[in-house]
Amino acid sequence: MSKLNKDILFLIFEELQDDSKSLFSCLIVNKLWCETVIPILWRNPWRYNIDYSKKNYLFAIISSYLTDDIKESLMKQLPSVSCQSLLFDYLSFCRSINVNIMKSMISIGSSSEYNQFLLQQEFYNLFMRKCLRFRYLDLRSVKHTIFHLPEFRLCFESLCELKCDTSINSSYFYELANICQYIQKIEIVNLSSESNYGIAKLIEVQKNLKYFEWTEDHFRVNPCKEIFLELEKKADHLNHLKLFFQYFNHFDYTIIQRLLPKLHKIKSLIINEFSFINENLLKRLAYNDLEILNIDYITINEASIIIDNSGGHLKRVSLKPCDFLKCGGDFDEDSLIFIRKIYENCPSIEYLSLAFSPSNDHFVEFEKLLKVCQNLKSLLLISPNIYRHGTEEIISKNGEELLKVLIRSAPNNLRELRFFNDFKFSLDVLENFLEKWRGRPALSILTSNLIYENYNYKNLINKYKNNGVIKTFRYEPSIMNIENMNFII
Known about the structure:
alpha/beta, 21 helices
C-alpha cells in the first residue's frame, strides 16, 4: 500500500467515503495518505455521525478563513475565533452545506443571538466565495435565507442532492426550482399537516430525478398529494424509491398504486406499507433492474410474485418476519415456492430474509438455494410461530439438520447468520458445527433465543471466538433489530 501512487489511493479511499472511522485512520499514516484523504472528507464533511456542536476545531477552521478586519471585529466578542494558518485549503474541497450543522457550529462561537446572526452572515458568504459549486444541500431547520447572496445561483445550479422537510416555507423551494433542474436525489421528512406546493414545484422542474425518499417522524394526515402527483410523472426515471408512512389510512393510496407499475428503471424499492396492493396490481410490477427489495406488511405469496417478475439482479431481499409470516394460504407450500423463486431468479443475492419451516422438502430446497446463490453474505432464517410448540427433541433434531446443510453447502461468502423464532441447537450440535466451520470466514450470529445466554453456551461461544471461528455471537431481544438486515451484529 505504501508504494501506491496518489491516483490509486484516491480510488481506494473513494470506496471508503461513507466510512469516517477508516478515513480518519488513514489521515495519520503518512503525508501522501493525508493529502489524498482530506479532499474526500471535506467534500461533504457534514455527512458523518459526529456531534458537530462540540467540535471547536471545526469552528476554528472555518473562522480562520474570515478576513482580518472581520476577525478583529469579532475577536472582541468571540475569543474562540482563530488566527492560526491552516495546512490545507479545506473549504476549497467542500461541496456541501448543512443548515442545521452550520447553526450548531455557529453556536460554539457565542450564545448571543446577535453575534450568531453576524457569524451566520459571514460564514455563508465565506462558503459561497470559497466552495464555488455545491452538490449537496441539507435545508432542514432553515430559518435564515441564503438565496439573497449574489453567488447563490452560480453555486447551486449544479446541485445533485437535497434534504429538506415539509415545514420549510414554500418560497425556499420556488427559489431552488428557478435555479436547480438537475437534482438527482431528494429526501423529504414530513413534519407538517399542510401541503407544501413549493416541493411539488421543485419536483416538477427536475429533469434527472433518480432517487426519492419520503419519511414521517410523526402522525400526519396530509402527506401532500401534489408532491406524489409530480413524482408519478418522474416514475420512469427513478432508480430508488423509499416510502415510510406513519398513518397510511389517511393517504390517497391510489396515487401509489398508479406510481408503482411505472417504475420501469427501479433498482431499490423500500416501502413500509404494502396492504393496499392487490393481486392484479402485483402482476403488473415488472422490475427488470431491481436490486433491493425491502417491504413491510407483505405475504410470502406477494413477495414471490414480485421476485418472479424481477430481472435476475436482486442482491438484497429484506422482508420483516412479523409481517412476512402473515400468510393467507398454506405456509409450508408458499414458503417452498418462495425458496424456489429465490434460487431461480436471484443468483446474485447477498442479503436474504428467508421464510422457513423445518420439513424435509424445505431442507432440500434450502440446500439448492445455498448451492446456486454463491454470493450470499447474510442470511435471516424465519420460522413461523406454529412450529414453536414442537417437542424439544424435534426442535433439536431440526436444528441439527439445518446446521448439517449449512456445513455441506453454505457458500464461502456467507458471514452472517440471523435466526428468528425457534432455531435451537444443543451444545454438542453447535460445537460440531463450529468445529467444521473452522477455516472459513469468521461467523457473526444473531439470535432471538434466550438459551444462548446460558453459562455453558457462553463458554462454548467464547472458546470459538478466541480461535477465530466466531466473530460475534449476539442474543437480541428486540424483534425490530432481529428483522432489520441493516442492524449490525
